[in-house]
Write a structure and sequence with these properties.
Shape: globular
Helix content: 25-40%
Strand content: 25-35%
Oligomer: single chain
Structural class: alpha+beta
Number of strands: 9
Order of helices and strands: HHHHEHEEEEEEHEE
Number of domains: 2
């Protein structure tokens, strides 16, 4: 009898936990795997402001996105450094989806150069500064196959590490907003959670953007607009 009561109690607790989970899931409507997928996708298209002027520019349609940013995103995600015209355009469709109507310029760009002798495009290197353009997802709203993602943008400045002369290889990292203002300074031996905590507590000092994404029938997500 006791054993039966224990089994009933366990089943009841399991039911309550599942019910609560269902309510919470319906409130957020976004799973952990979806959050991870969204974060990975935005990371893949998030650039460097010293190259593209903005890490993530604003646009109302992917075909209105700045050319420099769009093709640098493609370049960032290439696995090869010697490509055909078709391979570059296929990669663009893979990243931005079938709604992308822009095609790669046949003459190439500053960083994807066309070699007329070999009839191939070659990816060139880029010199980056000591500032890392970063973002933090603040909120995600989902409606059917659409995601509305609010991000906070910030900069991790490692320039103090370049000429650092000290003990234990510990240096300072400045956390800046997009205006270049230092919000906080941390030590290099502090973990990523410290940075996230700083961003959350000082959210009003950083720029924010809304990234609108769509999900296709295969579960892949693509960017629609940024505002």
């Amino acid at each position: 009898m006791k054993r039966l009561l224990v089994i009933i109690s366990v089943l009841l607790i399991t039911f309550i936990v599942m019910y609560i989970y269902k309510i919470e899931k319906n409130k957020t409507n976004v799973t952990a795997s979806e959050v991870e997928k969204i974060e990975n996708y935005i990371s893949n298209i998030y650039m460097w402001k010293e190259i593209t002027n903005e890490a993530l520019p604003k646009f109302n349609n992917i075909n209105n996105a700045p050319d420099l940013w769009l093709w640098e995103v493609v370049k960032k995600n290439l696995e090869e450094y010697e490509l055909t015209y078709e391979q570059i355009n296929n990669k663009a469709k893979e990243i931005f989806g079938e709604n992308l109507s822009k095609t790669f310029p046949t003459e190439g760009t500053d960083y994807i150069i066309y070699d007329y002798r070999n009839e191939k495009y070659y990816v060139t290197g880029i010199g980056l500064d000591a500032e890392e353009d970063s973002f933090l997802i603040k909120k995600i709203e989902k409606k059917k196959d659409k995601y509305k993602v609010e991000i906070i943008e910030y900069i991790e400045d490692y320039s103090k590490a370049i000429n650092y002369e000290g003990n234990n290889d510990i240096y300072e990292i400045d956390i800046k907003n997009l205006n270049g203002e230092i919000v906080k300074t941390i030590k290099s031996n502090e973990n990523e959670e410290k940075i996230i905590d700083i961003i959350k507590k000082n959210a009003n000092k950083f720029s924010k953007k809304i990234v609108n994404l769509s999900e296709n029938s295969d579960g892949k997500i693509y960017i629609d607009s940024v505002n």
